[in-house]
Design brief:
The structure holds two protein chains of two kinds. By secondary structure, chain A is mainly β. In chain A, 6% of the residues lie in helices and 43% in strands. In chain B, strands 1, 3, 5, 6, 9, 11, 12 and 13 form an eight-stranded antiparallel β-sheet that branches. Chain B starts with a strand and ends in a 5-residue tail after the last helix. The chains are: A mainly beta, B mainly beta. Chains A and B meet through strand 27, strand 28 and strand 29 of A and strand 3, strand 11 and strand 12 of B.
Chain lengths: 501, 218
C-alpha cells in the first residue's frame, strides 16, 4: 500500500530557491561525501487513475549529505502539462500548485470563480531498489503505479589516478536536418545536458559545480565569402562575433542597396553571447520547422542554420567556431547588447563550416545566426564539423559518398548493453582514403558507445578497419554496442572522416 | 569453442512470418531462473514492425507478479505478448522455474515486413534469452556467453528475416503453413488461475441473467 500524500498547509517552494539550495548542497559537498550515497533513476514510470494516467521519471539520491537531492518530472497526460519536483525525496518540494482548474460547480465555491488545488508526489523504492512505487495526487485525483528502478553509488568512485570531474563539460554536437538538395545536413545543433556519473544533474547544479552563474554560447565567424552588414549598414569583417552588437542588418529587398539591407534599429541584442536573455526564458529554435526550447532546467540548446544564397561552389564555405561558456554576473538586456555579466570560462568549443546556399521558408532572421525554418531542398551544401576543442579533424567524407544501414539493437541483460551492427558502403564510385573514422555525433548524453575506438572530447568514434581505404562498392559491417541506462531511443547521425585522429 | 548455428529464413515478403520455437530444458529442470524477450529498433530510421509471442506452453512455472513489460511490450505469459518497435527498449522479463520443455511461436508482421518502404535504414531485432537466476545475470542453454542470447531474429530492410541460433537445445523453425498449427495455449499453472476462471464463469452467468431480465428497447 502506498501512503497517501499529506497536502494540507504546505506552501510550494519557489523553483529558484530550490535550485539555489540544490546548488549550494552540491558545490563542494558531493565529492566530499564520506558515507556512500546512492543515486537512483527511473524512466517510463506509469501511474494510472480513474480518468487516465501520468508518466513519471527522474532521479533521486539516498544518503547524500547534507541533504538528498532529486529531480522528478510528472507528465500529466490529462492536462498536457509537466510537474517537476525537487529536493529531498518526498520532502517539502514534493507539493506544488495544481495545473488543473477546478470549476466552482465541483469545488463548491462562488459561481463564476475557480479554485486551484495542489499536486503532490510520493515515491517509495521497493524490492531492494529495483522497483519504484508511484503515487501522484492532482486536485484530489489519485494516480498510482510502479516502474523499474536502477540505483548505483553516487558519485561513482573516480579512478585513483584521475581527479574528480568538478565541472561537467559534455556538449553533444550534431549536424542535422533539414537536408539540402544534395543530401547534406544544413543545421548545426548543440546540446549541453550536464551529466555526472551518467545522471543528468540540471543546469543549476552544473553552474554551481563550474563556479559560474549560468551558461550561454558564444559564436565567432572565422571567415565568409560574403561578409554581411550590421544594423547600421557597416560591413562586418571576420573574424567577428555572431551576432555583432545590435545584430545584422534589416533585410529589405535586393533592389535596395547595399546587399538588400535597409536602415533600421537593432535586430539582436544577444552580444556578447549567442542567445539573448529573452531566448533563454522560453524561447525556441526552429530550423527544422519543429520548435525546440532553447533552455530547460536540464538542457541548453544550440542551433544555427545559416544560409548564403549567393554562395557558389568555388566559394569557401563560411566558417564558425562555437563555444559553450560559463557566465558570471547578472545579465541585463540592453538595446544592442547584454551587460552586467561576462563569459568567464570557455567550457567546450567546436568549429564547423556551412556551404549551404538555399533560402529560408519565410522571412528568416539572419544569414549567419539563424534559427528560423529554411527550405532545405532549395539549395545545396551543408554543415560539417571541422574541429573539436581545438583538435583539427581530417577531411570529412561528403555524406552522399557513403550509405549506411543498421540492424536492430538487441538488449543483453548480461552485458547490460544494446548490441547490433552498422553496415557502410562506398557508393562514391571511387576509392575513399583510409583510415576511415565513423564519428557518432548526436548520441544522447546518457548513451555511451561501449566499443568506441576512442573519443574526441566525449564524442565517440570507431576506426573502420580499412587502412588502405575503402574501394568503390565495398561494404563493411561493424558491431556497435551501446550502454543506455535510461533506455532512450538511439538515433545516430554519424559522420565519416578520412584520415587519422 | 563457440557454437554458432546460423541460418537464414526465407520469406517471400509474406506477412506474418512465424517461427515455431521449442527448447529442451530438461538439463536444468527445477532451476529457478528467468526468461527475457525483447524487440527493438535500430539506431537509424526504422519502419514500424510488430511481433507477438503466441501459444507459450511449458511444464515449468512462471513466477507471475507482473507487470513484466517495458516500452511497447504488453501482455503476460502464458497469454499472448505483443511488441512493437516504437520505443528504444521493448522488453518482457519474467522469473521462471524450468521444467523439461518450453515452446512458443514468434510471429512477425507490420509494414516493415509486408510493405518495406525502401527508405528506412535500420531493421529491428528480436532476442530471446534464458537465465539460470531470477535477476537475469547468468545465461543458460546458449553458447553466447557475451550477450546471452539463445537466438535472435533480425527484420531486414527488404522485409525478410534472419535467425541466428546460439542454442543447441533450441529449435527455431519457420512455420510455412504446411505444419499443423501450434496447439492452443494450455497455459502454465499460475496461482489464482482457477479462481479467475471461476470468477469469469460467474460473471458470465450473471450477465446472462441480467440480459434476460431487461425489457427490449425498440
Amino acid at each position: 500500500m502506498i501512503p497517501r500524500i499529506c497536502r494540507a498547509g504546505l506552501a510550494p517552494t519557489s523553483a529558484v530557491v530550490r535550485v539555489a539550495i540544490l546548488a549550494t548542497f552540491l558545490h563542494g559537498v558531493v565529492f566530499a561525501q564520506t558515507v556512500p550515497a546512492t543515486m537512483c533513476t527511473f524512466s517510463n514510470g506509469l501511474a494510472e487513475g480513474f480518468f487516465g494516467g501520468v508518466t513519471i521519471s527522474g532521479f533521486f539520491t539516498q544518503g547524500l549529505l547534507p541533504a538528498d537531492i532529486s529531480n522528478i518530472t510528472v507528465n500529466d497526460l490529462q492536462v498536457g502539462g509537466n510537474y517537476t519536483f525537487t529536493g529531498p525525496l518526498n520532502g517539502l518540494g514534493y507539493v506544488t500548485v495544481s495545473q488543473i482548474i477546478v470549476p466552482c460547480v465541483l469545488a463548491g465555491c462562488t459561481p463564476g470563480t475557480t479554485v486551484t488545488g495542489s499536486a503532490g508526489l510520493h515515491l517509495v523504492p521497493d524490492r531492494g531498489n529495483t522497483v519504484i512505487l508511484l503515487d501522484f495526487v492532482d486536485s484530489g485525483e489519485d494516480f498510482t503505479g510502479s516502474g523499474p528502478l536502477s540505483c548505483s553509488a553516487f558519485p561513482a568512485r573516480p579512478p585513483s589516478n584521475n581527479p574528480p570531474q568538478v565541472c561537467p563539460m559534455n556538449v553533444i554536437q550534431s549536424p542535422g536536418g533539414p537536408t539540402s538538395g544534395d543530401g547534406m545536413p544544413t543545421t548545426m545543433n548543440g546540446n549541453y545536458t550536464p551529466v555526472v556519473n551518467g545522471v543528468q544533474i540540471g543546469l543549476g547544479s552544473a553552474a554551481s559545480m563550474c563556479g559560474v552563474d549560468s551558461f550561454n554560447f558564444v559564436q565567432q565567424v572565422n571567415s565568409t565569402a560574403h561578409p554581411p552588414r550590421d544594423y547600421m549598414l557597416n560591413v562586418v569583417t571576420p573574424p567577428s562575433p555572431d551576432p555583432p552588437p545590435g545584430g545584422l542588418c534589416n533585410i529589405g529587398d535586393d533592389s535596395k542597396s547595399p546587399d538588400g539591407c535597409v536602415s533600421g534599429g537593432p535586430t539582436d541584442n544577444s552580444f556578447p553571447f549567442y542567445w539573448k536573455q529573452s531566448s533563454l526564458q522560453g524561447g525556441s529554435a526552429n530550423c527544422a520547422g519543429s520548435p525546440s526550447l532553447i533552455e530547460t532546467p536540464i538542457t541548453l540548446l544550440f542551433q544555427d542554420c545559416p544560409f548564403d544564397m549567393d554562395l557558389v561552389k568555388s566559394d569557401t564555405a563560411t566558417s564558425f567556431t562555437t563555444m559553450l561558456v560559463g557566465v558570471s554576473g547578472t545579465c541585463t538586456a540592453g538595446s544592442t547588447m547584454t551587460t552586467g555579466c561576462a563569459a568567464s570560462q570557455i567550457l567546450y568549443s567546436w568549429s564547423w563550416t556551412s556551404s549551404y546556399n538555399g533560402s529560408p521558408t519565410g522571412s528568416a532572421g539572419g544569414v549567419m545566426k539563424n534559427t528560423s525554418p529554411i527550405n532545405g531542398p532549395s539549395g545545396t551544401g551543408g554543415v560539417t564539423i571541422t574541429a573539436i576543442n581545438g583538435v583539427q579533424l581530417p577531411p570529412a567524407v561528403p555524406s552522399g559518398q557513403i550509405s549506411m544501414t543498421a540492424s536492430g539493437l538487441a538488449y543483453s541483460r548480461v552485458s547490460k548493453t544494446f548490441t547490433g551492427t552498422v553496415t557502410i558502403t562506398n557508393v562514391s564510385g571511387a576509392l575513399i582514403n583510409g583510415p576511415l573514422q565513423m564519428v557518432f555525433f548526436g548520441l544522447p548524453a546518457t548513451v555511451t558507445l561501449v566499443n568506441a575506438t576512442n573519443n574526441l572530447s566525449g564524442t565517440p568514434y570507431v576506426t573502420i578497419p580499412v587502412p588502405a581505404g575503402m574501394a568503390a562498392g565495398q561494404s563493411i559491417t561493424v558491431s556497435v554496442q551501446f550502454s543506455n541506462p535510461s533506455n532512450a531511443i538511439i538515433n545516430l547521425t554519424p559522420a565519416f572522416y578520412a584520415g587519422s585522429f | 569453442m563457440r557454437f554458432l548455428w546460423l541460418f537464414c529464413a526465407v520469406s517471400a515478403m509474406a506477412s506474418p512470418i512465424t517461427y515455431d520455437v521449442t527448447v529442451n530444458t530438461s538439463s536444468i529442470t527445477g532451476t529457478l531462473g528467468s526468461l527475457d524477450f525483447n524487440f527493438n529498433p535500430g539506431p537509424l530510421v526504422t519502419q514500424l514492425a510488430n511481433l507477438q509471442i503466441l501459444n507459450f506452453t511449458s511444464d515449468g512455472t512462471l513466477a507471475g507478479g507482473c507487470p513484466c513489460g517495458q516500452g511497447d511490450a504488453s501482455g503476460e505469459l502464458p497469454g499472448t505478448l505483443s511488441f512493437d518497435n516504437g520505443m528504444g527498449f521493448n522488453d518482457y522479463f519474467e522469473g521462471f522455474t524450468y521444467g523439461s520443455t518450453i515452446s512458443f511461436a514468434v510471429s512477425l508482421f507490420g509494414p516493415a515486413l509486408s510493405a518495406p518502404d525502401g527508405m528506412s535504414t535500420s531493421g529491428s531485432t528480436f532476442a530471446f534469452s534464458m537465465y539460470s537466476d531470477p535477476g537475469g545475470a547468468t545465461p543458460v542453454l546458449t553458447s553466447d556467453t557475451v550477450n546471452g542470447y539463445a537466438f535472435t531474429v533480425d527484420v531486414n530492410l527488404d522485409g525478410s528475416t534472419t535467425v541466428t541460433n546460439n542454442s543447441a537445445q533450441t529449435s527455431v523453425t519457420q512455420d510455412t503453413g504446411s505444419n499443423p498449427p501450434p496447439p492452443p495455449p494450455s497455459g502454465v499453472p499460475e496461482p489464482g488461475t482457477l479462481g479467475l476462471s471461476l470468477a469469469g464463469l460467474a460473471i458470465g452467468v450473471g450477465l446472462r441473467r441480467i440480459g434476460r431480465s431487461l425489457p427490449a428497447r425498440f
